[in-house]
């Protein structure tokens, strides 16, 4: 959750009704303690549900931070002259009752006479979305550290390979949790199922459920698309690419990203654990959101992507226009390794060498670029043009590997030096027969790794620069917290 939203949550919850039991007056201290325990055990938990807008949270910021600071110096154990009783907000709600909220608000929940044990919130139309982790607070309104510290329990988990039901497991509350607020804005025209367990002082567990209905909004729609197709077979380096109709505001990117899921299975449907992460690439000028695994995808896998973004805020005035799903296949693991020093291009498929060709890479003045490229497209006939080098040339069997003009293609004019010298304008030159053989084998997403050059790829000037980033740098471009 962004710092702005955390501060808003702290501010809002400082005003929740987090009432502790007052100690009854008695001349005998032991009788006082026993009486308090009996009263506490007998009292039924009281649940309150409210909704907090960003404007309300902003107005309460100063009050909430002041309350948190003063509470930090107070005794941890209330006495007969000390009780935590902030202003009451939210309404008492009976189990199973329905409440309403407006788009963009967040749900707040508090309990009296008990402590929260766990909580989950599920969007009825999209049960695959991970449970909102929210923020927990104690009776003083101070934020508590989340109890769940495992990778899969965090909203920013970069291992999205679990099933829908596992992703929706309840979040365990930390000790002394008396209140909770959702971390993400509520989506217009949606219904949320809230499920809570609270434990009273006598150890008894109390279950609480409620349905929160969010009204429809009037924001303008923003489309989301993907370049891949259902049932398409791609290479092990293919990223998942989402493009938006305009720019997604940074403050809403976590709301978008936390809803996305990626599931990987083998061809028999058995789940495969794949570590990966979404990343917001520089706007171009529309927003681009890519997913790549830490290492290449496991070959011969199936990938299922769920992108439920209809009515999800993307700016103050726009929301997602559509939901999107995508199911595609990862094919064989074919990797090209081209070396500018040895002047060879070697192709391996599932670990076995299938091609080893003499090649000519970029000349010293126009070098090929070291780094991992990805097959982007291919054409049997293509016209190469360059304003920088002032040429226009028709070529056969052209496989694009970068937006900077790098291709693998037939170059019969350089056959005499292929294998011994680099004379191209950055492309990998092969004979016509060899270029055709490679062309026939190449698919979108195949990695092409170039070494031995005096120039290196940057993360700019490409639709697909995903593998140029170091893994830790890639994860930092996610809008969600990382471990």
From TrEMBL:
Domain of life (superkingdom): Bacteria
GO cellular component: extracellular region
Domain L,D-TPase catalytic intervals: 334-451
Metabolic or biological pathway: Cell wall biogenesis; peptidoglycan biosynthesis
Keywords attached to this entry: Acyltransferase, Cell shape, Cell wall biogenesis/degradation, Peptidoglycan synthesis, Signal, Transferase
Keyword flag Acyltransferase: yes
CDD domains: YkuD_like
N-terminal signal peptide: 1-27
Region Disordered: start-end pairs: 23-42, 55-108, 146-170
GO molecular function: acyltransferase activity; peptidoglycan L,D-transpeptidase activity
Active site location: 409, 427
Comp. bias intervals (Low complexity): 66-89
UniProt-listed GO biological process terms: cell wall organization; peptidoglycan-protein cross-linking; regulation of cell shape
Cross-referenced PANTHER family: L,D-TRANSPEPTIDASE, L,D-TRANSPEPTIDASE YCIB-RELATED
Annotated protein name in UniProt: Ig-like domain-containing protein
Organism lineage string: Bacteria, Bacillati, Actinomycetota, Actinomycetes, Micrococcales
């Amino acid at each position: 959750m962004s710092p702005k939203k955390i501060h808003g949550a702290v501010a809002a919850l400082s005003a929740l009704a987090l009432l502790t039991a007052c100690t009854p007056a008695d001349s005998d201290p032991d009788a006082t303690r026993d009486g308090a325990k009996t009263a506490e055990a007998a009292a039924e938990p009281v649940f309150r549900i409210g909704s907090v807008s960003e404007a309300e949270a902003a107005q309460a910021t100063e009050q909430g931070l002041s309350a948190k600071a003063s509470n930090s110096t107070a005794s941890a154990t209330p006495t007969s002259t000390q009780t935590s009783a902030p202003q009451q907000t939210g309404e008492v709600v009976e189990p199973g009752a329905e409440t309403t909220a407006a788009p963009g608000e967040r749900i707040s929940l508090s309990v009296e006479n008990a402590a929260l044990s766990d909580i989950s919130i599920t969007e009825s139309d999209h049960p695959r979305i991970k449970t909102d982790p929210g923020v927990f607070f104690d009776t003083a309104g101070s934020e508590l550290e989340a109890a769940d510290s495992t990778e899969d329990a965090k909203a920013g988990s970069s291992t999205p390979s679990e099933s829908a039901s596992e992703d929706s497991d309840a979040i365990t509350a930390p000790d002394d949790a008396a209140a909770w607020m959702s971390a993400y804005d509520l989506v217009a025209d949606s219904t949320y199922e809230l499920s809570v367990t609270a434990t009273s002082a006598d150890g008894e567990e109390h279950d609480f459920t409620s349905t929160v209905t969010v009204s429809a909004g009037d924001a303008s729609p923003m489309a989301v698309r993907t370049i891949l197709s259902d049932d398409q077979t791609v290479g092990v380096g293919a990223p998942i690419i989402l493009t938006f109709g305009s720019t997604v505001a940074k403050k809403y990117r976590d709301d978008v990203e936390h809803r996305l899921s990626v599931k990987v299975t083998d061809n028999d449907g058995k789940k495969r654990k794949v570590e990966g992460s979404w990343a917001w690439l520089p706007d171009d000028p529309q927003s681009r959101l890519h997913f790549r695994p830490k290492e290449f995808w496991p070959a011969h896998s199936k990938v299922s992507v769920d992108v439920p973004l209809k009515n999800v805020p993307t700016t103050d005035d726009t929301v997602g226009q559509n939901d999107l799903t995508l199911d595609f296949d990862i094919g064989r693991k074919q990797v090209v390794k081209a070396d500018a020093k040895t002047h060879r291009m070697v192709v391996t498929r599932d670990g076995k060498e299938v091609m080893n060709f003499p090649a000519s890479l970029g000349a010293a003045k126009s070098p090929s670029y070291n780094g991992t490229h990805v097959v982007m497209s291919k054409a049997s006939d293509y016209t190469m043009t360059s304003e920088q080098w002032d040429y226009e040339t028709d070529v056969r069997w052209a496989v694009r590997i970068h937006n900077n003009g790098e291709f693998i293609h037939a170059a019969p004019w350089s056959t005499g030096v292929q294998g011994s010298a680099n004379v191209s304008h950055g492309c990998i030159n092969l004979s016509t027969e060899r270029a055709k053989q490679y062309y026939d084998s190449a698919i979108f997403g195949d990695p092409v790794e170039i070494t031995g050059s005096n120039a290196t790829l940057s993360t700019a000037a490409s639709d697909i620069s995903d593998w140029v980033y170091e893994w830790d740098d890639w994860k930092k471009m996610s809008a969600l917290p990382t471990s």
